[in-house]
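Section 3.1: Structural characterization of target chains.
Under the original work plan, the team committed to producing a structural model for every single-chain target entering the pipeline before any wet-lab resources were allocated. The record below documents one such target. The sequence was received from the expression subgroup and is listed exactly as submitted; it comprises 294 residues.
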Amino acid sequence: MVNNAKTPIGIIYYEAYHDYEDKMLPRALKKKNMDLVLIPAEKQLDFYEIRERTKKCKIIYNDTICQPMLFESLELSKTLEEFGKKVINSSYSFFYQEDRWMFYLKCLEHGIPTPKTYLLHKETKYSKDAIKEVLKKNPLVLKGIFSDNAKLVEKVADYNNFLKKIKKISNKDKESPIIAQEYIQHENKSYRATMINYKLKQFTAKISKNWKQTGSEKEHFRLAKVNKYVKDLCERTARILGMPICGMDLIFNSGKWYIIEANSCPALNFIYEDEKRLIKILANYLYSECKKLK
C-alpha cells in the first residue's frame, strides 16, 4: 500500500513577499510531497498559536535571509527550538557564528585563515597610539557586528578617518557593536562559497568597481573553479560553525586564501541560471532532514 501522507516542514518567511508559495523553494518542496507550514516573521503570533501551528513539524527552515526581519525571525527560531524543533540554521549559529567577532574567535580556535580582527567599544576612549600603530601596518575595515549588505562597513587608513567612520557607523546603527578587521588587498574581487548540508555546491567570483563586496546588482558574478584545498577549507569551516546552509565570503591575496565571514541565510541567486539547481539541492536536503526525524 502506497503511503501518500505529506511530510510537514515549517518555513519562517517574509509575509511581504507576495505569493511566497509560488517561489522556487516552496514549489520544489511541494514536488517532494511536503506540507508547508508557513510562519510569517512579520505577524504577531501568540505563543500557543505558534505551538499549535507547528506541532507536526520536526524541522523548521528559516528563509528570511535579510535584515531587519532576520532579527524578528530569530525570536521565532528560538521559540521553536524551545518546543524541541530543529531549526535550520539554528539560532545558535547566528548569534555565535555569524556574529563577526565570534566568527573571528572560532577561526582563531581552529586555525582558519581570516584577517586579524579587533573588538571596538563605542562608549570608551580609544587608545590613539594603539590604533595608529595598527594603521601603520594595514588599513582597517570597520564593521557593525551584524551588518548586512555592507551598510555598516567602512575602510579607514588614518586615525582621524577612523574616528569619523566610527561615528558614521554608530549614527546608522546605535545598537550594533563594531569590529575592526585588517584590510586584505583583493583588487575589488572576492569569492562566495555556497554550502548546503556542509558541502560546497557553488563557488562564485564577485567582481566590483568598489572595494566593498556587497552582493548587489551592480557587481558582476561568474562561476569560478575551486581547488581541493579551498573546497576542504570551506566544508571544514561550515562544520566548525555548525552552519549546514551558509554562504562564505573569501578573498585571495599573495597566494593565500582568507575566509572573511559566513552568512547563515545565503541568497542563492547570484548566478540566476544556476539558482534552480541550488534550490533543488536545498529542497532535497530539507526533505532528507525531515525524514530522519519523522
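The first strand starts at residue 7 and ends at 13.
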